Amino acid sequence: MAYVISEDCIACGTCIDECPTSSISEGEIYSIDSETCIDCGACSDVCPTGVISPL
Ligand code: SF4
Questions:
Q1: What is the CATH number of domain 1-55?
Q2: How does residue 55 score in pLDDT terms, banded at 50, 70 and 90?
Q3: Distance from the CA of 11 to the center of ligand 1, in angstroms?
Q4: Whole-number Å distance between alpha carbons of 23 and 53
Protein backbone atom coordinates (compact mmCIF):
# COMPACT_ATOMS: atom_id res chain seq x y z
CA MET A 1 0.00 0.00 0.00
CA ALA A 2 1.02 3.56 -0.61
CA TYR A 3 -0.55 6.97 -0.54
CA VAL A 4 -1.00 8.87 -3.80
CA ILE A 5 -1.24 12.56 -4.66
CA SER A 6 -3.95 13.50 -7.17
CA GLU A 7 -3.56 15.84 -10.12
CA ASP A 8 -5.32 18.53 -8.07
CA CYS A 9 -2.10 19.06 -6.05
CA ILE A 10 -1.22 22.77 -5.86
CA ALA A 11 2.48 22.02 -5.10
CA CYS A 12 2.38 24.05 -1.88
CA GLY A 13 5.12 21.97 -0.22
CA THR A 14 3.30 21.39 3.08
CA CYS A 15 3.56 17.61 2.98
CA ILE A 16 7.18 17.09 2.02
CA ASP A 17 8.73 17.74 5.44
CA GLU A 18 6.18 15.50 7.17
CA CYS A 19 7.21 12.29 5.41
CA PRO A 20 9.39 10.09 7.67
CA THR A 21 10.77 8.15 4.71
CA SER A 22 11.40 11.08 2.32
CA SER A 23 9.10 9.47 -0.21
CA ILE A 24 7.62 12.71 -1.57
CA SER A 25 9.19 14.40 -4.59
CA GLU A 26 8.68 17.97 -5.72
CA GLY A 27 7.41 18.79 -9.19
CA GLU A 28 4.64 20.54 -11.06
CA ILE A 29 2.53 18.33 -8.89
CA TYR A 30 4.15 16.38 -6.05
CA SER A 31 4.45 12.60 -6.16
CA ILE A 32 4.95 9.73 -3.73
CA ASP A 33 7.35 6.84 -4.27
CA SER A 34 5.21 3.74 -3.75
CA GLU A 35 8.34 1.65 -3.08
CA THR A 36 9.31 3.57 0.04
CA CYS A 37 5.98 4.90 1.33
CA ILE A 38 5.09 3.13 4.60
CA ASP A 39 1.44 4.15 4.46
CA CYS A 40 1.61 6.27 7.62
CA GLY A 41 -0.77 9.00 6.45
CA ALA A 42 1.28 11.90 7.84
CA CYS A 43 1.24 13.70 4.49
CA SER A 44 -2.48 13.28 4.07
CA ASP A 45 -3.11 14.74 7.54
CA VAL A 46 -1.42 18.05 6.68
CA CYS A 47 -2.46 18.50 3.03
CA PRO A 48 -4.51 21.74 2.87
CA THR A 49 -6.35 20.66 -0.26
CA GLY A 50 -7.03 17.04 0.71
CA VAL A 51 -5.54 15.57 -2.42
CA ILE A 52 -3.44 12.82 -0.75
CA SER A 53 -5.21 9.53 -0.13
CA PRO A 54 -4.50 5.81 0.23
CA LEU A 55 -4.22 3.96 -3.06
FE1 SF4 B 1 5.49 9.53 3.47
FE2 SF4 B 1 3.69 8.53 5.19
FE3 SF4 B 1 2.86 10.03 3.13
FE4 SF4 B 1 3.84 7.57 2.69
S5 SF4 B 1 1.94 8.09 3.81
S6 SF4 B 1 4.35 9.43 1.53
S7 SF4 B 1 5.44 7.42 4.27
S8 SF4 B 1 4.15 10.72 4.88
A1: 3.30.70.20
A2: confident
A3: 16
A4: 14
